[in-house]
Amino acid sequence: MNRDIGRLEKTAYDLLVIGGGINGASIAHIAAKRKMRVALLEKGDFASGASSKSTKLIHGGIRYLENLEFDLVYESLKERSLQLKVAPHLVKPLPFVIPVYKGDKRPLWMMRLGVLLYDLLAGRHRVQPHKDLTREEVIALEPGIKQEGLAGGVIYYDAQMDDARLCLENVLSADSFGAHVANYVKVTSFIKENGRAVGVRAKDVLSGREFEMRAGKIVSTVGPWTNELLRLDSPGAKKKVRTTKGIHIVFKGQISRHALLLGSQSDRRIFFVIPWMGNSLIGTTDTDYIASPDAVKVEQEDVDYLVREARRVFPDLPFGPEKILATFAGLRPLVRQGGSANKVSRKHLYYEAPSGIIFVVGGKYTTYRKVAADCVDRIRRVRGKEAFSIYGGGAITETAEEAGRRSGLDGATVQSLMDLYGSRYGDVLKLVESDPSLGERISDDPPVIKAQLAYAVRTEMAQTVEDILARRLSLIFRGPVSERVRAAISSVLLKRQ
Ligand SMILES: Cc1cc2nc3c(=O)[nH]c(=O)nc-3n(C[C@H](O)[C@H](O)[C@H](O)COP(=O)(O)OP(=O)(O)OC[C@H]3O[C@@H](n4cnc5c(N)ncnc54)[C@H](O)[C@@H]3O)c2cc1C
């Protein structure tokens, strides 16, 4: 991808999308595929907002059944099925065990009814049928959990994703259809003519340069920053988004064999313990947050809450700070409404301001394609019928060993490229074929070769060490990052300048 600020300035766009999280990326992708001249601006890195801070689930959201949001769950289950097909390298089926204890706020019969309903709603989009479990069956599946008071459980199926990369794949897809995309460009104000927004003033965060851009239509997909953008458009605008904070802990090592859905004892919330990147993801919290979205961070009390609840189910496990590999905090950009934070609906809406700017408000990651397609339909006033596909989601027609022989790499390295890049692993292999020194490994677990760093910078528009460690290769969630890896990344970034 080519980050060309001069081109952004010179082109008159049909559509300017502000915010490079999953919603902005997919709107840019679908609009470009429908032959619109599209620009996508992101003030940080792509997916650096909520879209890399999720629980990494492409799911119907079993807990929304409690709120009787059957339409949202149905829609999400349909989208889950589509995402499993279009991005098989990034979205994978995941079994969930729900152990239920005597005295739990949600008794066993309720859980059993819940998963039955979930599967019925999924219909032909079901991943695999759920199953009721006896106490002994739960213990056989998850021998590490507390057995005292265990009543039984259920197993059901959802999907796990790599949120940062799925967002990036949509940006890459947008670029492949001709959209002009740039990260580290912040929109600072709107240009208006007769009260209508006709463009923006923006700042290239990397160079400090300010410039103007023109577009027939502007869409804001800034998620948790929506209230800020609304006020940038009209100082007296009413807030439309309620931001609630959710944090996750990345615990060293795999705590459980399956993903676990657990009810907290201290409130009625549920939380997950999920095998993730060789470690375990524990989350999440859900608390109102009113400060600037830029300042969101993990507080000790958030960590204490999750550790306390996880320790209840795994009383024998050490949860000391040495076991916590990483933590991260994100904000849910929910449609503004009252009530307790975890009861607020995950539905989305489009708000068209008097200036003509469309604000996408609310939603969840899982339904991003639908949110984007509906948004583009709205702009074009015609329903698009194109098939949805993403950058690396094509079929892989050779084995890792075969591809490895061609490029001089071992099968394990090529397999890890296939897992990360899907059908575009060949892009990275081509770099090695043209310069064999790029085949050198800089890490063994997981295998990482120099070509991936070059690819992250040249093709995936990575600008900083963190872009690569957190969102291109996810290395900070796998284990301590070695000095060798950091030095190799710094050297690639330096050479680019
Ligand atoms: C803790 C947590 C767990 C979640 N778990 C799940 C889950 O498991 N499954 C699921 O389906 N959903 C989940 N969600 C919800 C999901 O993550 C969000 O709904 C989704 O990521 C929102 O995407 P977005 O593109 O609207 O916002 P974001 O990803 O936040 O993107 C908005 C972008 O706009 C940019 N921006 C802001 N201001 C400007 C400006 N002036 N100029 C340019 N760019 C700007 C920001 O930098 C940001 O990158 C979770 C959310 C949280 C917080």
Bound molecules: flavin-adenine dinucleotide
Number of domains: 3
> Cα distance, first to last residue?
16 Å
CATH topology description of the largest domain: D-Amino Acid Oxidase, Chain A, domain 2
The CATH class label of the largest domain is Alpha Beta
How many distinct helices?
A: 15
Q: Give me the CATH architecture of the largest domain, please.
A: 2-Layer Sandwich
Q: Give the class from helix and strand content and strand pairing.
A: alpha+beta
Shape: globular
Give the C-alpha Rg. Answer: 23 Å
Strand content: 25-35%
Number of extended strands:
20
Low-pLDDT residue intervals, each spanning 5 or more residues? none
Index terms:
497 residues, 20 strands, D-Amino Acid Oxidase, Chain A, domain 2, 10-stranded mixed β-sheet, alpha+beta, 15 helices, FAD/NAD(P)-binding domain, globular, 3 domains, 8-stranded mixed β-sheet, binds flavin-adenine dinucleotide
Polypeptide structure, described:
The chain is α+β, with helices and mostly antiparallel strands. It has three domains: 5-51 and 164-239 and 345-380, 3-Layer(bba) Sandwich (FAD/NAD(P)-binding domain); 91-159 and 242-336, 2-Layer Sandwich (D-Amino Acid Oxidase, Chain A, domain 2), CATH 3.30.9; 400-496, no CATH class. The chain is 33% helix and 26% strand. The chain contains 15 helices and 20 strands. It has helices at residues 5-10, 22-33, 70-86, 108-122, 135-141, 163-176, 226-233, 300-313, 368-380, 400-407, 411-421, 425-434, 450-458, 465-472, 483-496; strands spanning 12-18, 38-41, 57-58, 91-101, 131-133, 150-161, 180-182, 185-193, 196-204, 210-220, 241-251, 259-263, 270-276, 279-283, 287-288, 324-335, 348-352, 358-362, 441-444, 447-449. Strands 3, 4, 5, 6, 11, 12, 13, 14, 15 and 16 form a ten-stranded mixed β-sheet that branches. Strands 1, 2, 7, 8, 9, 10, 17 and 18 form an eight-stranded mixed β-sheet that branches. Helix 2 packs parallel to helix 6, helix 2 (22-33) crosses helix 9 and helix 10 (400-407) crosses helix 11 (411-421). The protein starts with a helix and ends with a helix. The relative contact order is 0.15. Bound molecules: flavin-adenine dinucleotide (FAD).
